[in-house]
Every structure is written in structure tokens, then in C-alpha cells.
Amino acid sequence: MPCSPGTHFIHLALSVLIAACLASGWALLPATFVVWILLLLAAGLVDHLFGHPRSQAPEPALDASTGGIVPAAGALLDPLRGAPRRVDALAPAADAGIREWRRHVEDIAPFDNERYPRAGICTTTSLFLRAGDVLVLRFHAQGDPQTRPSSWPCDLCHAGTRRRFEVRADAETRLPIARTGVYSLGIGQDAPGSLALGGSVGVWLEVATPDALSLPLAPADTSACHYEAAADGGLVARIGGETHREDHARLPARRIRKVPLGATLLFASAEDQWDAAGIAQPGSDWHPDNRHLYRWYQQLSRGDVLALEYAWQAARFDQVLRFRGDTATSRTNGALSIYRFVRGPALHHQWVDALSPRGIDEFTCDADGIYCLELECFGPPGWRTRPVSDFIDLRLWGAFLQRPHALRDFDLREGSVEGRYRQLMPVPRG
User: Fold this and answer.
1) What is the dihedral of CA 41, 47, 48, 51, to 10 degrees?
2) Strand-pair partners of 307
3) Using CA atoms, how far apart are residues 324 and 319, in angstroms rounded to an integer?
4) Using an 8 Å Cβ cutoff, are 225 and 217 in contact?
5) pLDDT digits (tens, 9 = 90+) for 179-216
């Protein structure tokens, strides 16, 4: 067994003490005992200073069939779906002395279900691009090399214009951006039954400087909500103006380590009361008993900075849920979001994550209006009688507020949204 430096030190000290006792008589025994205690304390200090923690290897498992010991199974990567290209198979590229600054946007796989009004397009993605950017596309084909396509149809729409082109598999397609604004990239529809042949389209963004790699790409959404008097004297909220803003990109939320110093607590699920708790959404829920909503409203201004601190009770979720009246099954889930009332753009949205149930997300409000902090839980009807702390503990902080006095400057009234369903809603005073 290997000895630590502290053990060697004790052995040496014991040798000195024993020699001193034999040479000086019994008068030194009390002093030897005191010195011994000091040596023990010194040995512990030496171990603390020079010792190194040892990694704990998993204990081997016993094989009952052979009586032997088999190594414990470790974590494995997912198997590769195909043979990827290796670096030694790539042709050497000429160094022209010019560096490119690129950002990977996403990889989009075609499918055979057309869901958008543009003919031949199965899916679209909206990007806020700036003058001088270059959109770089490459088609990554799959399947049999003898039958798979060599290119894929796509289009790019902006300001009422539509450009169609083919994205090749053997070369990159480069689309220079001349005007700043929101662009809609469309991916061509796959033929029915040929999903294995479709592959995917890789989308990259090339920018002029490395500083531009951090600029947001998600277009800012806009919407409007106004109130009308119903025929019965009630209140009706109307939604309009839902579109992308051509001149503005939405700032994404970012994960931070701690709440900013000086932040003001706006709402805490453990101490404060929700404006509306345990309600379903009539008229739009196909299983109203299984959806549980909790809402708290606030009035924000453009430029406000908020931090959302949360801790999901992940053990409550990801269980099989069987619906009543049929054989369909689903899983319990939860989501936390902050969006502009009634159906405006979301400042923040996050699903329950069992791998990282805790976090603090900081985000910036980009438009004035009344916003809703909403907790949505999808589970059995019995969840409605449980306290929110059984599912999540959350706090909303105001790191910087333009008008803190206006945070709750509205009235809560029962009304109708678009005349279809009723709910408790915030109404500006006056």
C-alpha cells in the first residue's frame, strides 16, 4: 500500500520519540504524549497539503453464469448512421491568405408534406440578415449514390420578391445579401416515399468581421391588441398586426451564473399569487382536463432587462399519460414562457429539462406592452389541486426597468379573446 508523505513523517517522528524515551527516562513521557498529539495534527496538515484525490472507478459487476467479474458498462455514443468523411480523405485547400468568418445556422431536412402556401416548399425559416452578409447553402444527399439527387430546390423571399435556385451537393451555393431585412428561406418538398433519399440542406452565414458572428438572426415579431365593447356590454380583445419586423432582430436570451446585483424581485412563485391559476383554455384545448395554466401579468417597456430564475421539479414530468375515451398516449411535460399579451412575440420560452433543471436566463424586452408570465403543465387532472411548488420554483427579477411604477398599472377583467373563449385579461387603465 503506498504511503502518503504524512505517514513517512509520523514514522520518522516515532523513531525520534522512542530514542528520546530510552535515553532520558520516564520524565519525558508526558511531554512525549503532547508532542505525539501535535505530530498527529501536523500529519493531517501534510496530507491536506500534498494529498491528491483519487478518482472512484465503478465497481465491477459479477457474472452469475460464469462466476467471474465483468467490467461495468460505460456510456456509449450513438451509432453512426453512415460512414462520415475523414480528414485524411479531404483534398488540401490552397491558402489564399483570406479568412472566412462563418456561423452555422441549421440543417434542414425536407419532408413530403406541404404546409406553406409557396408552391413546392415544405418548410421555411425566417432570418434577419444584414447588407454584406452571404447566405451559404450546401445539399448533403443521403441514400444510394446511384439514385440520390445531386441538388435540391430552394427559394429565398424578401420584400415581395422570390428567387428560386438549386442547392448543389458538389459545390456551395452563395447568396449575397444586398439589403438588410427579414428573409424567408424555403426548402423544397420531398417526393412521397423518398425521405431516405432527400438528405438535408446545410445553412451557413458568412459575415465580413468576426464581431458580426454574435449578432442575432431571429427576426423580431410584432403584434397588436385592442379592446372593444361586446354587444352584451362585456369586453373583447382583438388581435392584429402579427408579422415580422423588417428592421429589427430579436435579442436572444442568455444563460447567466447569478442574478445581477441590485436586481428587484418582481414575482416569486412561492410567495406571490398568480393572477390566474389552474385554468384550462376553453375553445382551443382538445383535452382541457390535462392542461394546467398559471399566469401573471406585467407591463414592460422597450429596453427593460429581466432575469428569470427557475428550478424544475423534473421528477414530476416525463411520465406516460393516457387520455380518457381513447387509446392515445402522451407524456407529461411543462413549459415556462414570457410573451406579449394576447398572442404576441415571446421574450422567453423554455421546456422542462431533466438534464439541466436549474438555470437563470437573462433577456431584454424589445417592445412596450403588457406581457404574460405563463407556466404550462401538461399532466393528469389531479395536478390541478397541487401547489405550483410541486412542479417548479421560480423568481422573476427586474435587472433594469424603465418604468418600475407602471409594472402593474392595469386592471384585471373578465373578457373574451376574439369572441371565442373567455379568460381573465389585463386591461390598460383609461
Assistant:
1) 180
2) 362, 397
3) 16
4) no
5) 999 999 999 987 766 555 668 999 999 999 999 999 99
